Amino acid sequence: MNEPTATSRRHDNPPEGEPNATQPAANGSKQRPRSAPGGRRHQARILALQILFEVDLTNHEPREVMTRTFADQPTPPDTRRYVERLVSGTLTDQEEIDHYVLSAAPAFPVSQLPSVDRNVLRIAIYELLRQANVPPKVAINEAVELAKRFGGDNSGRFVNGVLGTVIGKIDHEKVTPGPESTFVDTLSTEERAEG
Which of 25, 31, 50, 55 is most buried by its number of CB atoms within 10 A? Predict the structure, then answer.
């Protein structure tokens, strides 16, 4: 793995010719400012990946790895809290998360996936399942970027494909009533807004 760190290089300037947060688009339309790459949640995901990668490969205690990671890489309190939430939530829900991976990519047993890909997927699926304040597109895009940056040549495409299937399954589960569901639970956000 290419050592993910919280102090990873940032690329704040868009490629030449592309608008940034302070420039209007070429067609004159106003764009909503985008957060700069390397934001606190992005950094939290990198640190969570670093921690989960080590725990996955070495079986070190997660709390010890987090303590050492935070000592080596000073982290703002809100970023630290998000790292802790990602790591503990991903580990707590790992069995459920791995089931989603297996159902989306049955030809690739979770235990045989490269550790980077496996843990990027786990973080993203945890966010898709448990972090309602993280839009699915953000969770997926962040995971693809982490996979491209720290994984193999095909990691970004693989992670994108798996997460595309997983989000479809999660959305289907939200609208398919279970034995304890009510009609209101089956309505999508758009249906509730309309009616």
Answer: 50
Cα→Cα distances 164→62, 79, 104, 191, Å: 29, 27, 9, 22
Rg (the chain; Cα; Å): 18
The CATH code of the domain at 40-176 is 1.10.940.10
Q: Domain ranges for the chain, please list them.
A: 40-176
Q: End-to-end distance of the chain based on CA atoms, in angstroms?
A: 49
What are the angstrom distances between the C-alpha of 189 and each of 104, 124, 177, 186, 194? 24, 21, 15, 10, 9
3-state helix, strand, coil in the chain (%, to 5): 65, 0, 35
Q: Which two tokens stand for residue 92?
A: 């707590």
What is the DSSP-derived secondary structure letter of residue 119? Answer: H
pTM: 0.73
Give ∠ CA 176-179-184 in degrees, rounded to 5.
55
Using one digit for the tens of pLDDT, what is the confidence trace for 13-39? 333 333 343 344 444 444 434 444 579
